[in-house]
Write a structure and sequence with these properties.
The structure holds two protein chains of two kinds.
Chain A lengths: L9 H31 L3 H15 L3 H15 L9 H31 L2 H9 L4 H16 L1 H14 L11 H11 L3 H30 L4
Chain B lengths: L10 H31 L5 H8 L3 H36 L4 H16 L2 H15 L7 H27 L3 H9 L4 H38 L9 H7 L4 H32 L12 H5 L8 H5 L4
Helix pairs in contact in B: 3-4, 3-6, 3-8, 4-6, 5-6, 5-8, 6-8, 7-8, 8-10, 9-10
Classes of the chains: A mainly alpha, B mainly alpha.
Organism (chain B): Streptomyces liliifuscus
GO cellular component, one term (chain B): ATP-binding cassette (ABC) transporter complex
GO molecular function (chain B): transmembrane transporter activity
């Protein structure tokens, strides 16, 4: 029944999807944390920059960002991100686009986590003489991190699904292979079922495991 | 000014802030200068390339406006179809009968776990193989199909969370005065839940508008996104200018929707007399994980 799969490297395609997800997740966690730090910090200029970044990037479709990375950055401005092969360049551009987009959501998730800590706790901490670093590392961040596991898990799942947008610039991931297979084979339902199953396998366990973790570690208030 | 992270600032902290500001400004200026020189080097800043958008109406009437119309049409159609479908699925998921609840739950979890693009590609092939939909209309049908399948399951979760957010006393009292279960749902729970859900529903529209761009990039749906390449080909390789204009249009539409949703949320929160929650703008992101059930009391109600 599934002999139409022969001649197609399904593993390779889903492996590319996973690679896109992991690299973009790490990148957007770093850049998103920096943005969140700017947004909750005391310097008005940095706060303004963080707010502007989040509001602008969140409202642009990811497709526009990724196509801009390919048509604008690469083909018009000649930025190739240190690679001379088209495939590698497109892969890196897709990761760049995903990081730019996802970090806005990571930033919002982290910020909401910091905001869940009641102000009274920090005031109490300062009142007993803890300095800024101690307030941050002993009181605020441990609670903040525990409350953002759930929202961050959602961002990660959305990112996994968003990696399919890389198909728009020809990165050989699952959605592109699915499109190609549907064009070549007359097995619409079976092909779709295989790819749907693949994505369910990627996203559902992530949601279940991280959902369980977030309930486990959340600070009950 | 009271924040969890820092206190009202003294003279030393204020001086430090000034130093940080100057350093940050310098870094930002350096990046902007780098971008500027690069654009200038490739001749992307020449007025000829930007002129079509600011002086004449041709670029707007030929490329941008028809594309925008298609984007809005697909988004509106998807919303109008997905809302009732989502309401039915959401209510079915709350049913007391397992044979209704379990399939509805399975459908919702399944379509939330799959990327919209995969659903759109499936839709396009479906319409070309099994129906006689006109080839020109197929991309629109496919985009709407993908968006409806995905968003009706997201909306189902919003509806469910909205109903669950109501105090249990509401349905207990209604049952006590002798209403049937479906009357409780229709007359007591849904009207209250709909108001609670409004901000979340409006901000889901932003997600839909953004996702239509996938159709433009992958399915040859002639939307706003798809206007970029013919436009930049016609006006002499003004890729950067075309992308900028298109991105600005998306930002304006979505920012207006987001602001409207936040305004609505604030208004509903302020005017609220009962104890039920208001499903806020943030609820949409938090509802989007498959497999994770919404814990209404903790996640959705963020207080007054």
């Amino acid at each position: 029944m599934f002999d139409f799969l022969e001649g197609y490297d399904l593993w390779e395609a889903f492996w590319t999807t996973v690679q896109l997800t992991v690299l973009s997740a790490v990148g957007s966690l770093i850049w998103g944390t920096l943005l969140a730090a700017m947004r909750v910090g005391p310097v008005p200029l940095m706060r303004g920059f963080g707010t502007a970044y989040v509001n602008i990037v969140r409202n642009i479709p990811l497709t526009v960002i990724i196509l801009f990375a390919s048509l604008g950055l690469n083909q018009t401005l000649g930025i190739s991100l240190g690679s001379d092969q088209v495939d590698t360049t497109n892969f890196r551009l897709a990761v760049l686009g995903l990081i730019v987009y996802t970090s806005a959501f990571v930033c919002e998730a982290l910020r909401s986590g910091i905001n869940t800590v009641p102000v009274g706790q920090a005031e109490a901490a300062r009142a007993i003489g803890l300095n800024f670093t101690q307030v941050l590392t002993l009181i605020v961040l441990p609670q903040a991190f525990r409350s953002v596991v759930g929202p961050l898990a959602n961002v990660l799942i959305a990112l996994t699904k968003n990696t399919t947008v890389a198909a728009a610039i020809g990165v050989a991931e699952a959605a592109l292979l699915m499109k190609e297979m549907i064009e070549n084979e007359a097995q619409l339902i079976a092909i779709s079922a295989v790819f749907a199953f693949g994505f369910v396998c990627l996203t559902l366990p992530t949601g279940l495991i991280l959902g369980w973790v977030s309930k486990k570690v959340a600070v009950k208030r | 000014m009271s924040s969890v992270l820092y206190d009202a600032q003294g003279p030393r902290a204020k001086r430090r802030n000034v130093v940080f500001s100057v350093v940050f400004l310098a870094a930002l200026a350096a990046v902007l200068w780098w971008v500027y020189t690069m654009l200038d080097e490739k001749g992307q800043l020449e007025w000829v390339l930007w002129k079509p958008f600011f002086t004449g109406t041709e670029a707007w009437s030929t490329y941008l406006w028809p594309g925008l119309q298609n984007t809005l049409k697909a988004a509106a159609l998807s919303m109008v179809i997905a809302l009732p479908l989502g309401a039915v699925l959401g209510i079915a998921r709350l049913s007391e009968h397992a044979w209704v609840r379990v399939p509805a739950g399975a459908v919702v979890e399944f379509f939330r776990a799959i990327p919209v693009l995969v659903l759109m590609i499936f839709g396009l092939a479906l319409f070309s193989e099994y129906t006689n939909v006109n080839a020109d209309d197929r991309p629109l049908y496919a985009v709407v199909t993908g968006l409806v399948l995905y968003n009706s399951s997201v909306l189902a979760e919003i509806v469910r969370a909205g109903i669950l957010s109501l105090p249990r006393g509401q349905s207990e009292a209604a049952l006590a005065v002798g209403l049937r279960k479906n009357q409780v749902m229709r007359f007591i729970l849904l009207p209250q839940a709909v108001t609670a859900m409004l901000p979340a529903i409006v901000s889901q529209l932003v997600v839909i508008v953004k996702d239509t761009a996938l159709g433009g990039a992958v399915l040859t749906f002639p939307d706003l996104m798809a206007a970029v390449s013919p436009m930049s080909a016609y006006y002499g390789a003004n890729t950067i200018a075309s992308f900028t204009i298109v991105a600005v249009i998306y930002i304006v539409i979505n920012f207006a929707l987001t602001s409207f949703a936040s305004w609505l949320e604030g208004r509903l929160r302020r005017g609220k007399k009962s104890t039920g929650a208001v499903l806020g703008v943030d609820a949409v992101d938090e509802l989007s994980a498959p497999g994770d059930h919404v814990d209404v009391t903790h996640e959705v109600d963020k207080g007054p």
